[in-house]
Design brief:
Strand content: 5-15%
Shape: elongated
Distance between the termini: 36 Å
Order of helices and strands: EEHEEH
Strand order of the largest sheet: 1-2
Structural class: alpha+beta
Largest sheet: 2 strands, antiparallel
Low-confidence stretches: none
Number of helices: 2
Number of domains: 1
């Protein structure tokens, strides 16, 4: 039995999503994200970002880290 996995980007206004349904790929979330070059939020695993949104999210977190608003990335 394979579980259906669908991940939707948490970028502001983004509607991108990935799923293991199209090609019968793994039901392992981390493998599915790696395959599609998606990223987890660096502060929590609750949010995921597509490869288009990730550069802006990464820059925002790097700026917050530089300003002392985040202790780690």
């Amino acid at each position: 039995m394979t579980a259906k996995v669908e991940i939707t980007c948490d970028g502001n206004g983004c509607t991108a999503s990935i799923s293991n349904e199209a090609n019968g790929s793994t039901d392992d979330v981390s493998s599915l994200m790696k395959w599609h070059k998606w990223r987890n939020d660096p502060t929590t695993d609750e949010y995921q970002y597509c490869s288009c949104c990730w550069p802006a999210v990464k820059a925002e977190y790097e700026e917050m880290h530089k300003n002392g608003e985040l202790s780690t990335l």
